[in-house]
Write a structure and sequence with these properties.
The protein is mainly alpha-helical. It has two domains: 49 residues, Orthogonal Bundle (Arc Repressor Mutant, subunit A); 135 residues, Tetracycline Repressor, domain 2, CATH 1.10.357.10. The longest helix has 24 residues. The N and C termini lie far apart (70 Å).
């Protein structure tokens, strides 16, 4: 097997694993289903990954990178710093409207693991930390007085919108969260003026 087809096989395994975990969860995604859906042998899977846990982590790491890159690309199409902050929610709304939307893969998989030190939970926490850091970067660029607090509030609005959109089947959750974010952003300068 040449290097290209070897990488291609690994990518297929990771793509299929990610899709199945996102759709059905970790526990419901067995090795038989992975083998059948990916069209590869069990031996091929074990050539790249020591066990299912390692495969799950690798698939979730790829999703983490790809999802955050997608969000950043969507947001940075906007010019103004305030527009970029609100674009977080426009991007979510577009995602909520897709046929394969199943909520946040990291919240979903965290819900399957009770142990905070489980690698899946550790990865989910790291994903949310990166999302917070991106919100913080946007808040700082906007010149927000208390950027850390506002980024923490935006993270709650983002995850709340994702959860409501999934559980309630309501893509307008992004609009509601955006409206709340707009209120937070508009209130910030008023609070600053009152302090002076």
């Amino acid at each position: 097997m040449n290097e290209h087809s070897s990488n291609e096989t690994r990518d297929i395994i990771l793509d299929v694993t990610e899709k199945l975990i996102y759709r059905h969860g970790i526990a419901a995604t067995g090795m038989d289903l992975l083998v059948k859906t990916a069209g590869v042998s069990r031996k091929s899977i074990y050539r790249y990954f020591a066990n299912k846990d390692e495969l799950v982590i690798a698939a979730l790491q790829r999703r983490d990178q790809r999802w955050l890159q997608w969000l950043r690309t969507e947001v940075e199409r906007r010019e103004g710093t305030g527009e970029r902050l609100l674009a977080l929610f426009s991007a979510l709304k577009a995602w909520f409207g897709t046929a394969d939307f199943r909520g946040c893969a990291f919240i979903n998989t965290s819900g399957e693991t009770g142990d905070p030190s489980n690698p899946v939970r550790v990865l989910a926490k790291a994903h949310k930390q990166k999302l917070y850091e991106y919100a913080l970067e946007l808040c700082q660029a906007h010149g927000t007085a208390d950027a850390e607090r506002q980024a923490a509030q935006l993270l709650i609005l983002i995850d709340g919108a994702i959860t409501v959109a999934l559980v309630m089947g309501d893509p307008t959750a992004a609009d509601n969260a955006q409206c709340m974010a707009q209120t937070l952003l508009a209130l910030e300068p008023v609070a600053q003026r009152n302090v002076r």
